[in-house]
């Protein structure tokens, strides 16, 4: 069992930056690929960024490439999402998720992930 707790969301202006954090419980954090997803009001949950268990492989949605960076610190059981040059269309609830895999796999589908956090709201004003 893995419990995930996100933090770092808030209200910012367009062009600002935020860093989201997700802390995982348990001693097997390094056995999981981690993903960040978001869900805007009235829309489906979508993949944002993901990172393999070792940190050696990352994936980003086209909409955030060049602006968002994902990283992890396995010693701290934490995954981060650095978000720069934020846009109003980035407004959403952001969720972190864990996918059990020791391969360099970073799924993009919601259904692939085993555990989810409760989400943190990010609001970007224009």
| Average pLDDT | 96
Low-confidence stretches: none
Order of helices and strands, N to C?
EEEEEEEEEEE
User: Judging from the principal axes of the Cα atoms, what is the shape?
Assistant: globular
Helix content: under 10%
The total of helices stands at 0
Number of strands: 11
Tell me which oligomeric state these chains represent: single chain
What is the radius of gyration?
13 Å
Distance between the termini: 40 Å
Q: Label the structural class.
A: mainly beta
Give an overview in words.
The chain has 126 residues and is mostly beta strands. The chain contains no helices and 11 strands. The protein has strands at 4-7, 10-13, 18-24, 32-39, 46-51, 58-60, 68-73, 78-83, 92-100, 115-116, 120-125. The strands form 2 sheets. Strands 2, 4, 5, 6, 9, 10 and 11 form a 7-stranded mixed β-sheet that branches. A hairpin with a 4-residue loop joins strand 7 and strand 8. The protein is globular and about 40 Å long. The model has no long low-confidence stretch (mean pLDDT 96).
Brief characterization of the structure:
This protein is an all-beta fold. The protein has no helices and eleven strands.
Task: Outline the secondary-structure elements.
Blueprint: E1 4-7, E2 10-13, E3 18-24, E4 32-39, E5 46-51, E6 58-60, E7 68-73, E8 78-83, E9 92-100, E10 115-116, E11 120-125
């Amino acid at each position: 069992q893995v419990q995930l707790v996100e933090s770092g969301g808030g209200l910012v202006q367009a062009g600002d930056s935020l860093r989201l954090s997700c802390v995982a419980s348990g001693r097997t954090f390094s056995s999981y690929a981690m993903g960040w997803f978001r869900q805007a009001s009235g829309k489906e949950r979508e993949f944002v960024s993901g990172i393999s268990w070792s940190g050696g492989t990352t994936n980003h949605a086209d909409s955030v490439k060049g602006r968002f960076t994902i990283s992890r610190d396995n010693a701290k059981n934490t995954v981060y999402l650095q978000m720069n040059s934020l846009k109003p269309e980035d407004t959403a609830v952001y969720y972190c998720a864990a996918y059990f895999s020791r391969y360099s796999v970073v799924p993009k589908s919601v259904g692939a992930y085993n555990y989810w956090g409760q989400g943190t709201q990010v609001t970007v004003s224009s």
